[in-house]
Every structure is written in C-alpha cells, then in structure tokens.
Design brief:
This protein is α/β, with parallel strands linked by helices. It is built from 17 helices and ten strands. Helix 2 packs across helix 16. The radius of gyration is 21 Å and the shape is globular.
C-alpha cells in the first residue's frame, strides 16, 4: 500500500509556526502504513523540542475519511506468507510463544510498536494537538484522533472501533479510552463496532468542537494572526496556548444546527447501559439482542456483533471488565503483546481475508459462538510476550 504524510507549516505573523501532518492515502481511506506512522512519530518528537512550534495539527486529504484505520492488508500478507503459520491448526495446538514466527511476529511487533508509540505521544504531548476530523475515523484513525487536546469534527464525522468484524480487538489505547466512556457504552461499542455520529460523539465527549465544513480557512487565518509571543513568555504558556486555540475553534463552531445529524446512540443510552451490565458475556449478547428498537442503527449494531469474531468479543469483555482502573501507558503495553498474539492465533488473518482480501464476507471463525470459546485461549492471548522492562513501548519518551 502506498501512502505518505505531507509535512507543512502554518507560518504565523509573529514568527512562530504550527506544524501540520496531513495523512495522504485517500484510495484506502487514509489507512496508516508503517512508514506513515514513522513519519508522524519522527515529527512529533522533533516538534516537541522546537520552541518555534506552538502547536501541531493532524488532518487528511480527501472528503471521505480522516483515517479509516491501520494498514491491515500489509499485516495480512505478513501472516499469510509466514511458513510458521501456513498449516497451523485452529486454535494452535502449541503455545503462541512457542511458534517460531520469523515473518509475521517481527513485522507486527514493529508496526504496532510504532503505531502505539504515536498514540501514546499524542495523549501526552507537551503542546496542543489539533485533530481536524471528518468522515470516517475508525480503528487506528481513532487512535490518532482521540488523544488530541483539540478534537475537531465536521458534521459528516463518524467514529467507530470495528475490529470485531476482522478478528482483532479495540486497540490503539481503546482498553483505556473505551473505559473512560459512561458505564456500558465502551463495552457496546467494542462488541458491535457501532458507528457514532458527530452528535453522539459530542454528547459522549469524544469530540470537542463541531465546526462548519467551510471553517478551515477561517481557523487557519486566526491561528496565523494570533500573537503567540504575548503568551509564550508566561509560566502557564501551554495552558494559555490551549485556551487560545479553543477560542479560535469555538469561533468556527457549527452554528447551523439543521445540518447536523440526529442522535442515533443516545436514544438507546439507558437500554445499552442496562444490556451491558452483566458478569457474563453470553448474557450481555442476549441483552443487546433484546434491545427494543426497529431503527437501522441499532439493528446494524446487533448484526455486526452477531456476525463478528467470538474471540474478539471475549477480548473486549476482558478489556472492559479487568482493565477499568489501569493507566493508559500500561494498557498500551498490554495491547502490544495482545496484538502480536492475535496475529499468531489466526483469527485476525481470517477476518482480514474475508473482509478486505477475498471480500466474501464469510469469515470462518475459530469458534462459532461466544458460548464455545475456550477461556484458556483467551488467557493465552493475554499472556505477555515481554517482561515489564523489555516491552518496546518503554522506549517512548512521554515526559
């Protein structure tokens, strides 16, 4: 997959600049390749030390998507061309840590390490990060977006973590950020991959500023002409810069409410919370399926859940149940090993094959239902690959 990140600057009249990272892979809905992640990480590290840079903006080309996820096709080919995984039984008869994978494991380790490092850096960045969202923001795209200090959304914005359809799981820090949502909502979004429109996202505090489609040029103009030097001398300069950016974005806020979509999730909010309150995953499935509603949105969510990977569902259940009070850093460290193990298991490869390679949309999941999943397999997927001090995420400087 080709793809690049265009690097540019908004040069301000007082001599400061705003660094701009533009995702440029529109034929794949701006899916993030490994090299794109490397570019993002490189410039985030460079700009955090550059006193002339007052803020960073992440945006993308095209009208359809900010970013629809990671480059899972490249992961598929790494898994497909790995001799160690060629004739593997499902589930594997040997422990995942005993599989001698010399193709998939190193590639997945590198890809996810760089991706999660970018996510972590954005969450902890020392300067404001403006994520200019529009269209689809899903999976790896949501991982970039959700950690930004200023999350902008156009009226057509749709957020989702749809990994249940491809046999992965809500990653890119979702173990942490889905747990920040109201009780039950994170579980529901992970199990169903449901789309969250801009109004629902606003009401769930997943976006900060809804702006008009035409707002960009005006916002850039105001950023250019703001007297940053007057506040950067202050000891509280970063909070003042952040406040100034918020005021500018509020000036571009969407005023014509008639162009915004009607809420889809919020009318079901109480039912979703009640349905996801249970100590048993099969019970939650039954309760979600019993949610009363004939609308397309809720029925689409149920359909995706029922057709999705039972293993993914169990992973998601454990993420929400067992990691509610775990820090973002520790969640991402855990996810790195979890993601590589998912690549060795076979479920992830099969989901990508069915939905993105062969496009028959008939994945042959390892288990036919959530009731059939062997909990020993889930425990094995969650078994750390590295010791605490050897985890590659330790190399990320977030201070």
């Amino acid at each position: 997959m080709t793809g690049m990140v265009n690097v540019s600057y908004i040069h301000c009249t007082d001599g400061h600049s705003i660094g701009v990272l533009e995702l440029d892979n529109p034929s794949s809905l701006n899916a993030l390749t490994l090299n794109m992640h490397k570019t993002i990480y490189q410039y985030l590290q460079l700009w955090r030390e550059d006193e002339s840079i007052v803020a960073v903006m992440i945006k993308s080309v095209g009208d359809r998507a900010f970013c629809a996820g990671g480059d899972v096709r490249s992961m598929y080919y790494a898994m497909e061309n790995d001799p160690a995984l060629k004739h593997q039984q499902k589930p594997p008869k040997i422990a995942l840590d005993q599989i001698e994978s010399h193709v998939a494991k190193p590639f997945l380790t590198e890809y996810f390490s760089v991706e999660y490092s970018c996510n972590l850096l954005i969450h902890h960045y020392n300067k404001p990060v403006i994520a200019w969202g529009h269209g689809y923001i899903m999976g790896g795209g949501l991982g970039l977006y959700i950690g930004a200090s200023h999350r902008v959304a156009l009226p057509n914005t749709v957020l989702a973590m749809p990994e249940i359809t491809i046999g992965l799981y809500p990653d890119v820090g979702a173990t942490w950020f889905l747990n920040q949502l109201p009780d039950g909502i994170g579980m529901f979004l992970g199990l169903t991959g449901a789309h969250v429109n801009v109004c629902d996202a606003r009401d769930l505090a997943m976006v900060d500023h809804i702006v008009a489609n035409s707002a960009y040029d005006n916002v850039v103009k105001q950023l250019k002409h703001y007297p940053w030097s007057t506040i950067l001398a202050d000891t509280q300069s970063q909070s003042l810069v952040s406040e100034a950016i918020s005021v500018i974005l509020n000036n571009g806020a969407e005023k014509a409410h008639s162009v915004l979509p009607a809420n889809q999730l919020m009318p079901y909010f109480a039912q979703i919370q009640a349905a996801c309150f249970a100590q048993s995953l099969p019970t939650i499935y039954d309760q979600i399926n019993a949610i009363d509603g004939l609308g397309r949105w809720i029925e689409t969510a149920k359909k995706a859940m029922n057709a999705g990977s039972p293993i993914t569902a169990h992973i998601c259940f454990k993420q929400i149940q067992s990691y509610k009070d775990v820090s973002l850093l520790d969640c991402i460290k855990m996810e790195l090993g979890l993601s590589v193990n998912c690549g060795l298991l076979g479920e992830f490869k099969e989901g990508v094959r069915a939905h993105l390679i062969d496009k028959d949309y008939m994945p042959n999941w390892i288990y036919s239902s959530v009731n059939d999943v062997d909990n020993k397999v889930i425990e094995q997927i969650f078994t750390p690959i590295w010791s605490e001090h050897e985890n590659p995420i330790n190399q990320v400087n977030i201070s």
